[in-house]
Write a structure and sequence with these properties.
192 residues; mainly alpha
């Protein structure tokens, strides 16, 4: 404690003569700066994870409220399809230091009907393409043929027979974090 004295708070203070010399500083500077950079990166990563976790919880809460408000039997896209919507991506991409609220997600769910319509059109197109590839059909397929009672799909995973629109919500075909290509692959692979 050479060079230390107590100030009015009772804590030790050090005079300039106790600071490391320029030679000592030169020897420890790079290592010390690297340790400080590492601590800063870890702290920022931790804050980012906490913000992301909080946003996921807020999204889940808002999603439960939205899905609970929808009419029974309505075919809705997998949650991953909604998450890919611009309104939701903007919220998740917002700087982690910006506070996000449940209201932000509730406002984003205003875009869900449009996202659902687009998803449904894409999923219907995939199913129509499966019909067109069928060996049993040799005639043009009208778009409304999916709703016909004779349009059956067989799941190659669980061997269930499904009538439209059941393939859109069948567990073997819908994955919580699907993207278009995964969804198309799931429908094409699972249904024949």
């Amino acid at each position: 404690d050479k060079g230390a004295s107590k100030d009015c708070t009772g804590l030790k203070t050090f005079s300039d003569r106790c600071l490391p010399s320029s030679v000592v500083w030169a020897n420890i500077k790079d290592d010390l700066m690297e340790v400080m950079r590492s601590i800063r990166e870890q702290r920022l990563e931790s804050l980012h994870r906490e913000a992301l976790s909080s946003r996921c919880w807020l999204f889940e809460t808002a999603a439960r409220r939205y899905f609970g408000s929808r009419p029974k039997g309505e075919v809705l896209p997998p949650i991953g399809e909604l998450l890919r919507g611009d309104a939701f991506m903007r919220i998740f991409d917002t700087d982690f230091q910006v506070k996000v609220t449940e209201k932000d997600f509730e406002d984003a769910f205003d875009t869900a009907p449009e996202l659902t319509t687009n998803w449904r059109a894409a999923a219907d197109s995939i199913l129509l393409n499966l019909l067109k590839e069928s060996d049993d059909l040799r005639q043009p397929i009208p778009h409304d043929s999916l709703a016909l009672a004779t349009t059956w799909f067989k799941c190659t995973y669980c061997l269930s027979y499904l009538v439209y629109p059941a393939p859109l919500t069948h567990t073997c075909c819908s994955h919580p974090y699907s993207v278009d290509l995964q969804q198309q692959h799931s429908l094409n692979t699972a249904l024949r």
